[in-house]
Each structure stands twice: as C-alpha cells, then as structure tokens.
Design brief:
Length: 143
C-alpha cells in the first residue's frame, strides 16, 4: 500500500475510535494536534505549488514534515502518540530517499525518489494535516 493509502487507513481508524468514544483527546492533545497541523501545513503546501518545486526542495519539505511528526510524538503519550507514531512510520521511507543522486556507493543506500513517490508522501502529509485539523474542530464542537 502507498503512503497515502496507509495514512488514510490510519486516519479512518482514528476517526472511528473518536466517533465510538474509544479515544477522547485531552486539551493538551488538542493543542498539540493544532500545532502539529500548522507545522505540517507550513512544511508541505498545496499540490500545484508543491509540484513546481525542485525535487530536492520537495524532499526537504517531506523530511521536515516527518520531523514535525516525530517531535509531536515525543511530546505526548497515549492515543495521540500512537496515532502520530504510526503515521510517522508510514512516512519513514522518505528517510531513504536522496536528492541529488550521489556517486555509486557513497549514498548510504539512499535512492532517488520518483515524482510519484514525492507526490504520494506529500498527499499523505496533507491527509494527516486535515485529520489533525478535523480533530480540533470535532473536539471544539463537543466541548
């Protein structure tokens, strides 16, 4: 499964848990989700603008988004940490990509990502961003 599909599946599972009352975000979860969503949106922009960037810049932004997720996981526990950790794991292949290609044997096993792989990672980040933003709205309407 691609990153978009994997993150979409995790988001669907989280929405189900929220709807069933199996996960009730705390105020600190909501604040962290909001901040993380903002950071992700700053790192990875809208699709048309993003695809115009050079591959090296697109990869840097995907990696920045992955770092935002990792920092958020480090700052929380429980459901939000599990959710973000799983999403971060699905985005982790981006850590094995390199731009530009290095001479043979000097890139520590990294591979040049295709435009499709970059687009997939960017869309997965947008799905995660929307989910975190949606969780904020749902929590505000129930409080």
């Amino acid at each position: 499964m691609d990153m978009t599909g994997s993150v979409g599946h995790i988001v669907a599972e989280a929405r189900h848990q929220l709807a069933q009352g199996l996960w009730e975000p705390t105020r600190s979860d909501i604040v962290l989700a909001r901040r993380t969503a903002q950071s992700l949106a700053e790192a990875v922009g809208r699709a048309p603008a993003q695809t115009e960037l050079p591959s090296i810049e697109r990869l840097a932004r995907v990696r920045e988004a992955l770092a935002c997720v990792a920092l958020a996981v480090a700052r929380t526990h429980g459901h939000l940490a599990w959710f973000l950790g799983r999403c971060g794991s699905e985005l982790a292949p981006a850590l094995h990509w390199g731009c530009p290609p290095a001479p043979q044997g000097r890139a520590f096993g990294t591979a040049l990502p295709t435009p499709g792989q970059l687009g997939d990672a960017e869309e997965a980040i947008r799905i995660l961003t929307a989910a975190l933003t949606g969780a904020n709205a749902a929590s505000r309407s129930t409080n």
